[in-house]
Amino acid sequence: MVYRRPVGVMRQSVKPQLASWDRAGHPSQVKLARFLAHVDAIARPVLATVRGRVAAELIVGLPDGVSLTDGGHDLDNYLFPVAKRLGPERVAAIFGRKIHGPSSLAVGPAQPDTAGATPQFSTRMAGSYERRKWKQELHDRLAVQAAAIDPGPAGLEIALTTGPGRNWASLWKPLLDAFGPVLGEDPTRPFHPHDDRIVSLGLHHTIDTGIAHDVIIDAWWTRM
C-alpha cells in the first residue's frame, strides 16, 4: 500500500539536519537536537489529535549554489531522525524532497492512495536485514529484474510490508544500500549506491500479520 503526501505545510525556521552518529555534545548532535525540537513543535498537535498513523513530508531547502544530486545530502538520512522522533510505529509513510528554496515540514493523517501504478520491482525477502547476505540477495534480484535510472536527478518510492512490531525505519539503510543496480554504483565500493541523486523519496509501510519476519518490497522509480 502507498499513501498520499500530507497537506498542511509548515515553514521550517530551523535548517533540516542529517542523522548523526557522533558523540553526545558534538556540534552535529546539537544542531540535530535543535531541529528535532522544531519537529516536535510542529508534529505534536497532529499526533495528539490523529488516532491512527500519520504521513509526513520534509522539504529540504538547499542554497542555490549547492547541488541537489551529490555532496552527501541523502534524503533517507534527513528522514530517519524525523521518523525516529515521531515514532516509526506512528508513521505509515514519510516523504522527502530536495529543492532550491525554503525548507518545510507537513504532518497529517495517513491517507491511502488507491490510484497507485504497478510496481517496477516486487520481491519478498526472508532472513535478517542486518546480515550482508540479505543486502546481497536484494542487490542481485534488482540486478536481474530492474532497469537502471538514466543519469541525473531521480525519484524513488518504496513500499514495505512487514509483520507487526517491526521498526520499519531500521530497514531503510540496508534496503537503499542494495539499490545500486537502479541508482548506479561504483563496482569497487559494494553497497554504496549513488543515492544522493534521489531528489524525491517516498517510504511507505503496511503491516501484515501473516508474513512473520519476511519483508515484502515494492518499488517505483523515475528520472526527474
How would you describe this structure to a colleague?
- This protein has 224 residues and is an alpha+beta fold.
- It folds into two domains: 100 residues, hypothetical protein PF0899 fold; 103 residues, 2-Layer Sandwich (60s Ribosomal Protein L30, Chain: A), CATH 3.30.1330.
- An eight-stranded mixed beta sheet has the order 1-4-2-3-7-6-8-5, with helices on one face.
- The mean pLDDT is 93.
Which structural class matches the secondary elements?
alpha+beta
Mean pLDDT: 93
How much of the residues is beta strand, in percent?
25-35%
How many extended strands? 8
| Number of H/I helices | 5
Q: What gap, in angstroms, lies between the N and C termini?
A: 23 Å
Report helical residue fraction.
25-40%
How many domains, as an integer?
Answer: 2
Tell me the name of the CATH class of the largest domain.
Alpha Beta
Q: Could you describe the largest sheet, including whether it forms a barrel?
A: 8 strands, mixed
Overall 3D geometry? globular
